Amino acid sequence: MRSAVGGDEAAYRRFLSDLSRALRPIVRRGFAGVSAAPSEVEDVVQEVMLAIHLKRHTWDQSKPIGPWIMAIARNKMIDDLRRRGRRGEVPIDGMMDFLEAGGQDDAIQAHDVTRILGNLSGKNREIVQAITLSGFSAREVADKLGMSEVAVRVSLHRSLKALADVYREQKL
Amino acid sequence: MNTENFISMLAVDAADRERPIERTLLLMLSIGVSASAAFFAWQIGTRPDAITVAMQSWEFLFKFVVTLGIVVPAYLLARQAMRPDGDVKSLVPLLIVAPVMLVLAMGYTAMQMAPETVMATVMAPNWSKCVALIALLAVAPFAALFYAMRQGAPANPTVAGAVAGLLSAAIAATLYASHCDMDSPLFVGVWYPLGIAAVTAVGAVAGSRLLRW
């Protein structure tokens, strides 16, 4: 993580991969009582990863990283559980079938990343799509769209922050 | 979106990184203190007899023991409050030291005085100026520290806002103490805490709304 925080893209990608594998069982366990669908678990994993990404400058590098990651994961999971509680989505056993059809699907889609990022304006959306769907690097996206690499990076960063804002607003 | 693609998106953003949060805090602290000190020097000013008084009266110097006794622990608290895994609780005892000293000094001073003069000392006519100027001088440091907190990821937004308020008010009180000619711990012990508490409360409310991340 140290080299990842230092801006090394390959090291960071490896770190994120390991992180997603470590977070999945943690989130699953956290949502054990409310029987979340796998896609919902994945949404929360992504939300935690986004928070870790945008707030990685709050990790004190003289300390082990584990407790810091857990603190962020716990914080986001509590927010999510609260959000479900307020919507009355915490399912009661007999009501599961009933809920399955309508309400819960909406909830899943409401914070699915693809949908949120779909609301971005033209250029920003194209950049995000080129990176996530085609696996382009910032350089490649820049060439393809005829922009500077810096502009691509700035746009992507802005989109990520916008995504975090959407997550936050849903909780208020 | 599957997590594989999501990771690609974050990885491409790896190079865009902010400075470590404790450096942001220090930077914002120095901006806030400078702004407030400049305003103080321009509009309010240190009392003219500060140096003579400082050599003659323990009460004048004691004001700074108390205010700086809040500034230091409040800064250490701020460093913790702006992190998701920060440990705020273990620093609280450090924060109690200055108020305890102040209460002891108030008791000691009151015992030396005739009972009927105690109330007159507390209710000196410029108490409202004291409270108002502490709040006013806290504005710049508060704005700067609140900004720093927003760059962080506070475990508890309300606490983080309150700590930003406490630290900025303690800085303001330190500046104001060099202007005010009321040195009695009886005066200081009532009105300074009132000003500081007001700013801290504003910080807590603002934090609970604006420091979520």
Short structural description:
Chain A is mostly helical and 172 residues long.
Could you explain the architecture of this structure?
The complex is a heterodimer of chains A (172) and B (213). Chain A is built from 10 helices and no strands. Chain A has helices at 2-5, 9-30, 38-54, 65-87, 96-101, 103-110, 113-118, 122-132, 138-145, 149-171. The longest helix of chain A has 23 residues, at 65-87. The radius of gyration of chain A is 18 Å and the shape is globular. Chain B is an all-alpha fold and 213 residues long. Helix content of chain B is 78%, strand content 0%. Chain B has helices at 3-12, 21-44, 50-56, 58-81, 92-112, 115-122, 127-151, 157-177, 185-210. Classes of the chains: A mainly alpha (172), B mainly alpha (213). The interface between A and B is large, with 51 and 32 residues.
Query: What amount of the residues of chain B lies in strands?
Result: under 5%
As a percent range, the share of strand residues of chain A is under 5%
Taken in chain order, the helices and strands of chain B follow as HHHHHHHHH
Give the helix proportion of chain A (percent range): over 70%
The most extensive interface between chains reads: A-B, 51 and 32 residues
Write the layout of secondary structure elements.
The complex is a heterodimer of chains A (172) and B (213).
Chain A: H1 2-5, H2 9-30, H3 38-54, H4 65-87, H5 96-101, H6 103-110, H7 113-118, H8 122-132, H9 138-145, H10 149-171
Helix pairs in contact in A: 2-3, 3-4, 3-10, 8-10, 9-10
Chain B: H1 3-12, H2 21-44, H3 50-56, H4 58-81, H5 92-112, H6 115-122, H7 127-151, H8 157-177, H9 185-210
Helix pairs in contact in B: 2-7, 2-8, 3-4, 4-5, 4-8, 5-9, 7-8, 7-9, 8-9
Tags for this entry?
heterodimer, A: about 170 residues, mainly alpha, 10 helices, about 75% helix, globular, B: about 210 residues, about 0% strand, elongated
